[in-house]
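User: I'll paste a sequence; please echo it back and then give the predicted structure.

Assistant: Echoing your sequence first, then the prediction.
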Amino acid sequence: METITLNNGSTMPLIGTGTNTYGKEGNQYRGELNGDFSALSSAIQVGYRLIDTAISYRNEAGVGKTVHDSGVERSEFFLTTKIPVQDEYIGSAESVEQTVLQSLKNLQTDYIDLYLIHHPIEDKGKLKQTWQVLESFVDQGKLKAIGVSNFDIELLETLKSFARIQPAVNQIESNPHTWNDELIDYLFAHNIQPEAWGPLSKVTEDQESALAKIGEKYGKNWGQVLLRYQVQRGVVVIPKSHNAKRQTLNLELFDFTLTTDEMAEIKSL
């Protein structure tokens, strides 16, 4: 597995698995929890070590148990979770602190590799308060890296204006429907790692066909070509599948390299 180095010196796998439908009825995001984390177990078995969850997914504890019970050393995993932005979680410094402590308990670990603010906090006071609590957990070694999700340039500039510890990651949508190139360029320029959620989402049939055509000479499918485009330009991806074969295929990105022309063609989709 190839990795990148974050601005705090930590290494992060270039590909991981999302978990937002794991452990739920019908594999649906809003499905009732059913405790079935066999898809996550399968992902771990085929080689995923970056595991991305969130409090709002309601399955943090199940993800933690599955990782803990996997038999793989904790040090091999890169665990990410996210704090919601409702007052229940960020209304006070104490509520932020209790939320982080609950995440540590749910994930059955004494440290979390990456802790993200899940959505923009427009109130500068609450954003500053939340960030300062997260910074205190970094000081304690309980959070290795902290970052954000779905933040735009303006809000990142606000955060950077008072942050003692700069955000390590911004997890954003990036796929052929919304490449988010301007934001990604900004992130690279400011040493913030872009991470793409939904990297295989919102792809039209025409786009699939174009990607599949590129993949023919490499023996790769359209999804592998699309994921390769992202990791080749340095963007971390977190595709998700409940199928072991597709999970395996999504990892097989490092035995081919797209040409400059192919990269340009994919960018133009």
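The longest strand covers residues 143-149. DSSP finds eleven helices and ten strands in the chain.
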